[in-house]
What does this fold into?
Amino acid sequence: MKCSPVVELVWNLASIEAVWMHCAHIEPEHFLLAMCELSSAHYAAFVEEAVSRGFDRKEIIAEINIPPRICGAMRFSRKTVTAHAASYASSPEAKTSSLIHRSAASRKMFYKAEKFLNEISKGDRNAQLRTIHLIYAALEMEIPVIKVLIEQKQFDVHRTRNAILRGINLYFPCANNQSQQTEASVSISSSMPYLNKFGRDITALARAGKIGPFFGRQAQLNELMEIFARKGKNNPVLIGEAGVGKTAIVEALALRLLEKDIPDFLEGATVVEINIGYILAGSKYRGDFESDIRGILKECSEQPNIILFIDELHT
It folds into this structure.
C-alpha cells in the first residue's frame, strides 16, 4: 500500500488523538478527527517539505483541504467523536504503550480504501492512497459515529458519496483514466458559434482538472450565489485590482457547480467566460463589436443554464 504524505501525516495525528483520549488503539474516528481538522495554512511547512520530495503542490493542498469540507458536510466534529470515545477509552491510569497500533476496524477501513483505490485506478501501481479514499471507506463501513449521524439525518449519504467521487475525479484523476480527458471536452458546443469563438467554458475546464483547486473566499462565493438567487438585479460585478483573484472566484464557482455544493437553482449551470478586450481586438469594421455582443447574448438567452462571466468589463 502506497500512502500519500498527507495520509502519513493523518496517521501520526490520529495516533496522538488516540493517546490523548486514553484509547488502546487508533480507531477510524481518530483518523476522521485528524482529517476534519486539517488546514494547509497550519501545515505550510509540511506542504513545502512534501513538494521538495517531488510531490505535486496542488494535490497535496487539495488533499489537506478537502477532508474538512466533507467532514463538515457530514456534521462530523471533535464534539461528536468525544461523545463516542468513551467506549474505546481505557482507564487513564492504565499503562500506555509508546507505540500505538490501528484497531481491527481501522485496518478494515484501510483495506476497503485500498480496494476502492485499486478499482478506480484499474490497478495502477503508482496510485496513492489518499485521505479522500479513507473517508469513502469509512462512509461505506458506516462506523459507529457515522451510523449515528445517518440515523439522525445529519447528512445525505448518497450526496456525500457522489461529492467524494467528484472530488477524486477533479483533483486526483488516475493515470489510467486521464486518456479519456481530451481537449474536445473543454470546448463549447459548435452550435453556439459566438460563444465557441469568444468564450472559455470554465466548467468544462474544471471537469477536465485543468483549473483549481481553490480554497478560501467562501464568503464571496456565498454572496455570489445569493445574488444569483434574486429575481431582479441578479448580475454581480466583481471589483478589485489586477491579480487579487476575481477570475479565481469565478473558477471556484465552476468547481462548486461540479461538486454539487450549490443551491438547487444552480443545478446544471455552466460558467462561460468572455473577454471584452479580446472581442474588441477582433473587430475589424464599425459595428463588428456590437454584432458580436448581440450574438453572444442571443446564444446565452437560448441557453438559460449559462452563467456568463464578462472579463475586463471596464474596457
